[in-house]
Amino acid sequence: xxxxxxxxxxxxxxxARKFLFDKCDRKSVRTILDDxxxxxxxELWSQISEMGWTGTAIPEEYGGLGLGMLxxxxxAEELGRSLAPTPFSSSIYLFAEFIKNYGSExxxxxxxxxxxxxxxxxxxxxSETNGTPKPSNVKTEYSSEKINGYKSPxxxxxxxxxxxxxxxxxxxxNRNSLSLYIVDLHQDGVSKTSLETIDPTRxxxxxxxxxxxxELLGEQGMAWDMTENIFNRAAVLYSFEQVGGAQVSLDExxxxxxxxxxxxxxxxxxQALKHKMADMYVxxxxxxxxxxxxxxxxxxxxxxxxxxxxxxxxxxxxAFNYAAKENIQIHGGVGFTWDYDCHLFYRRSKLLxxxxxxxxxxxxNLISNLxxxxxx
Amino acid sequence: MDFNDSQQEAAFRKEARxxxxxxxxxxxxxxxxxxxxxPQIAVAGAPETVKGGKEAAQEALERAKVWQKKKAEAGFAxxxxxxEFGGYGGSPIQQVIYSQEEHDYLVPSGYFEIGIxxxxxxxxxxxxxxxxxxxLPKMITGEEIWCQLFSEPSAGSDLAGIKMKAxxxxxxxxxxxxxxxTSGAHFADYGxxxxxxxxxxxxxxxxxxxxxxxKTPGIEVRxxxxxxxxxxxxxxxxxxVRIPDSQRLGGExxxxxxxxxxxxNERLAVGDPPGLDFDQIFEATKELxxxxxxxxxxxxxxxxxxxxxxxxxxxxxxxxxxxTALSKGQTPGPELSISKLVTASKMQDVSxxxxxxxxxxxxxxxxxxxxxxxxxxxxxFFSAAMRIAGGTDEVLRNIIAERVLxxxxxxxxxxxxxxxxLPSGKN
Lengths: 376, 427
What we know:
The complex is a heterodimer. Chain A is of the alpha+beta class. Chain A is built from eleven helices and ten strands.
């Protein structure tokens, strides 16, 4: 059994960690947090693009590094640790994966090199209303080669050059009437409205489409199936980001609890706090192991992916949400100030657990995929 | 990343599988076999007294001994032990592979694990050659069963607080006091015991370690009836029990050090607890009906199940990470320290929830209970014990906090004071 990353992958992790430690300190995260006009860290984005991270899992023939999904998992964990304010997840976990898996040869040639180089940014949008997205509440339409409709929230929509959306291509309201389309956002008829998010370092906007040109991605009527598959793939990557963030939340809680004294003792010597941190550790180790299993399924194109991805996602959301909220609790009063970093993780943890479907939605996915697996 | 065995691992797995296929019966997810009724934990040791009284218990013990002998002859009873004592001379990864394979079979468990896993290794470190030759081979074959006499009424989580008196009288020691929670004392042939030989020394310095024959005059074993109605554990009373000094392991006052050898092996001795997990409640929800149809179709049920699934598989994959380290010849990290903490509470939650789903039939805990063979009723009681045996949830959290995370130790009042001057309660 070899249920671990290779030495090369670990080396990549160490390099990524060191790089982000230098280039993506909390000060740079806060420049995005504190300025409404900034949607991502441009300098960091061009640096990580230059190093090829954006092209990690994109084949060499399309301008990528041609490494695998495991390498992308390694990078995702480090991005999560550093709270990197970049559109990496939207552009790489989602847009690039959609094109890579479902694009025509021409589409791959056209989009992937631009995404791999970081020159252009892509994203994906499904949701139009509050609540769990389902085929019947997609109202956006495609007819006469034009898109009309509305998507919100669109993660990294402000910075994105391209967008993949689900829209109705025939009789509305059922799963098979939805298709995916690629939209160039630099055209008339696209109007964006910025939205504040619970984590401004991961921004979103709403986008209105009026007679906007678009091209079909993949097979007509297959939007839902394709989206489920890409969300499964992305869920594994998200879970690594979440594990990374959870681990740093625990590390910082621990550090503070050993520096802070109360009643003549380090507060980290009180069992109430020790046990809380032990519980964080337990959840993080479970999440890490579930994420590893997801990584294995993702990298081997296993039939296990739907179950493995959902398991990774549920476990990682639980771990990061818990670690981030209890990190504030362990810090006490300063934990809920703007100056201390606890809230950065608290924001990020909740945002990540909602971004490609809520935890309750993924729990449901998990059980329904287990049922399917049992029937097969 | 892959889950493949190396060539040698695959060969060993085949060897184990071949042996089990011929000699044991496969386990089903929800089994009605009597010895599969209550989940066991190796750390708690002995199986419950089988319902049906002494005779049935004796029969179960005999069956276990027959099985153990076969297993020993095939070499699988003590894979980590050196060949000279009847072991396989194998590696930790081979132990893991065998356990994985055995997990799928219905075999007696809970009689021999403490001896082979913890007490034998202690004797290997601290015993003399004669002792090792005399006792170790019979420990493996199951001809002689051993128990561990550590805990006392006033020394559980705080094990070094034991009060059992050991007084030297010429070439002999005289033991007086009481042990408790001794798994299998009612059928054990031998035991290992820690006692206080010098109450005026510091708490951890005044202890001495012995082994003894459980038939020595003055030893009285009384089973403890647990909330499950059955008895895995015993109280053991010592009334002027005389044992020769030659049965001392380690020096006078070195008992704590010897006990640590035993306890260090405890983690390795912990097997896979068969029985109650996600798979069982998943099966149950396909049978049980709630207000809107089958339980498995109910949204609240599905939400809860998902959380148990990720705990269950998260532990399994955590084990895979440790096995990977073993397979590369490395020492696993501390990640497995979470195992019992998660398993016990999960079992308690799963059992309680399954009883909820049964609604009023959940009340029934009758021998002929047709609903899921009492699995969850038994689990409901057993899990309460599991959260305590082999380290309480709270002690395990402390261990994770201190040894894994490096948080400060608890402040202690017992470090610099002679044992007999420490404050203590009624016991």
